[in-house]
Amino acid sequence: MSSVPQVPKVRMVEGFPHKLRTWWENFTPTEKLTITRRLGCLPLLFKITPDKHVIRELIQFWDPDRVVFAFKDFELTPTLEEILYFTSLKYQRMGQIIPHRQSGKKFFCYLGLKNENKLRCFENNWVSLDYLYERYGRSNSYKLFRKEFSCTQVHWQVRRPIAFAVALLGTLVFPREHGCISTCIGSVARVLFEGVDSEELTVVPMILAEIFRALGKCKRGESNFFEGCNLLLQIWALEHFHQRKNMDDICFSNINHINSFYDRMKEFVYPIGTDDWYEFLAHRTSDQVQWKYPLLPRSPAYIRCRRFYYIELIGLKGLQPYAPVRVLQQFGQAQVIPLRANMRNSEISFGPNFEVPRAKEILHEWDNILTIDIGNGPEKEIPEYQIWFQEGRNSISSKGGARF
To answer: Of all helices (H) and strands (E), which one includes residue 63?
Structure first.
């Protein structure tokens, strides 16, 4: 039995807030349609039961310099296409969102609230779910808090779905510790609902970037709270580790892959607890992985930009490199030896003013991205790949480092 390393007990989102679910259920079918057009299937994350043990152990296998999970004889990483698979959010031929600092005053103004100087949280540019729910979560919230609004009820009705988007993104997708929702998420929600100069933008790269950022910070011991979407990371991992011998358990008619997640996983034997998950992950080999999702969209996958052998993603808090060239088998293609590239220097934090370095250059590269066809798969790696992979592991070990 492997020696299970002692790992920090990283905290994370451990449930879908009851008020957020009630808020969702209070919407009319028309309002829900408005929201799902912008947030895809994210509101259905309440169907997922969080498992903190799998996330904590996955962190031990994360290689932040190569932006992959490094297991016994293979690498895996979440991809843009797999985020699309779960969320039904489009990203191709759509621009990345550039986040902006949004003060509490601007946040208030956009949502139609009077500037409430008594709330100290707004001085630090955050808001609570409780505050948003009380003022937008019920159909009669406007009447209950009429004196706090500077807008008409018609304007308030229009802002309700946007306020919900801020709450959902801030509690589940881009969470902060203690349930603090960053007011800068208001700028992201506004772009999703209104676009920029008539251009529709996508939040998919930002979701993936913040998952990578959270993995890196937790692996390096820089944070004890996972600030990415651990629920998406959890179901992403389980889909790959549940290897299916046949397709009989796949519901081809259901395109909502969050809603149907547990139907697909009904035959998967879950490890229980931290130790079991470590043993499971430490001994998993490449022939025990569901490399390509059965229902992965067939449109070409984003593989690299023209300038680098990776892609720069604009996150909520910083730039994050992304190297799908290292996981070609996830696209149904044979894995070849990728060019070595330490991407640590490409991970850049924005700072308090949300200044995005080289923004125009990054967006230009994104608009001219290189793609690869998604194959039928599964395909094995070329023979030379395993030699290269093991040499890389041995090199790291000889220098006193560790992948895990």
So the answer is: strand 62-63
Query: Which residues does 316 contact at the CB level (< 8 Å), separation at least 6?
Result: 99, 174, 182, 184, 185, 188, 206, 209, 210
379 in Cβ contact with 329 (< 8 Å): yes
pLDDT confidence bin for 125, thresholds 50/70/90: confident
Tokens of 400: 């006193």
The two three-digit tokens of residue 49, written as one number? 């039961």
The DSSP string of 344-375 is GGG-EE-TTTT--TTHHHHHHHHHT-EEE---
Counts for the chain of helices (H) and strands (E), in that order: 15, 12
State how far the Cα of 355 lies from the Cα of 383, in Å rounded to an integer.
44
Return d(Cα 183, Cα 78) in angstroms, integer. Answer: 27
**pLDDT value at position 279?**
95
- Whether 399 contacts 393, CB under 8 Å: no
Dist. CA 315–CA 336, nearest whole Å: 29
In this prediction, residue 233 has a pLDDT band, given cuts at 50, 70 and 90, of: very high
In 121-246, where does DSSP find H-type helix? Answer: 129-136, 141-144, 153-168, 185-194, 204-219, 230-241
Residue type present at position 208: L
Q: Residue 255: pLDDT above 70?
A: no
Mapped onto helix, strand or coil, the DSSP state of residue 403 is: coil
Phi, psi of 296 (to 5 degrees): -65, 135
Task: Report which DSSP code applies to 121.
Answer: G
Would you call 321 helix, strand, or coil by DSSP?
Answer: strand
| DSSP bridge partners of 311 | 322
Between the alpha carbon of residue 242 and those of residues 111, 123, 226, the distances in Å are: 43, 46, 24
- Residue 140 is given by DSSP the state T
Handedness of CA 19, 42, 53, 319 (dihedral sign): negative
Cis peptide before 321 (omega within 30 of 0): no
pLDDT at 401: 43
For residue 398, give Cα distances in angstroms to 23, 113, 402. Answer: 54, 60, 9
Residue 175, preceding peptide bond in cis (omega within 30° of 0): no
Return d(Cα 19, Cα 181) in angstroms, integer.
14
Q: Could you give the dihedral angle defined by the CA atoms of residues 264, 282, 303 and 92, in that order, rounded to the nearest 10 degrees?
A: 30
